[in-house]
Amino acid sequence: MQTFVTLVRRELGAFFVSLTGYAVMAGVLFLLGLSMTLMLNSLDATPVAVPVIELFYETAFFWLILLLAAPVITMRSFALERASGTYETLMTTPVSDLEVVLAKFTGNLIFFLIIWLPFLAYPFILRRYTAEPDAVATGPLSTTFLGIFLLGCLYMSMGIFASSITRNQILAAMNAFAMGLCLFFLSFVSNMVPLGDGWLSKIAAHLSMFEHMRDFVQGVIDTRHITFYLSLTALFLYLTLKVVESRRWK
After folding, report:
1. What is the pLDDT of residues 219-229, one digit of tens each?
2. What is the pTM of this model?
3. Burial of 83 (0-12, 13-18, 19+ CB in 10 A)
4. Which of 71, 153, 155, 243 is most enclosed, with most CB atoms within 10 A?
């Protein structure tokens, strides 16, 4: 366990001694602030029937942060280790391949959650200056962060897998972005192609990121959504482990 914690600390600490980590934090802060400002200006003090958190989820900024930040965070995980020559050193230390994969996943996921922390301040600011407490209800706010956590698990595992198959960080980021974008666009399949009410329609709905996240922002915890995110996360971590283990096959 101590080895795992040390590896996680090493992975997480790398973000705070590099320009990449601060650039990601600055970019996310800018997009969060811009989205909240534009959203409140568009409302123009007009009462709305849904919580403000739900309105934010429907903006492009929410998904833009996820699609852009995740590849940049994860691109260095294995690609930088391979390019700098520290990968061989790391893999010859007395740690298992699984510990390395899980430590990199955990370190990236913690950093992903850290960059979302400023978002917590916005509901409290709104509650301070609005006369309608339900606009920032605690229940939907908590489940929204649960949804963000599960989305982070999936996109971090996907990005780490993309980083494990190359030694080029830019290529790793592009691969992770492409995979994330494909998964995101699957949400629109049912809107673009008439699928009727059959099993294809049910599969499209099950793969829709919007449908999964909508329940979370409305304060609903559905085990089907949790299973969806965790199973895909486990799949990409398994694939990453196989890529790491493949060095023994050469």
Report:
1. 788 888 899 89
2. 0.85
3. middle
4. 155
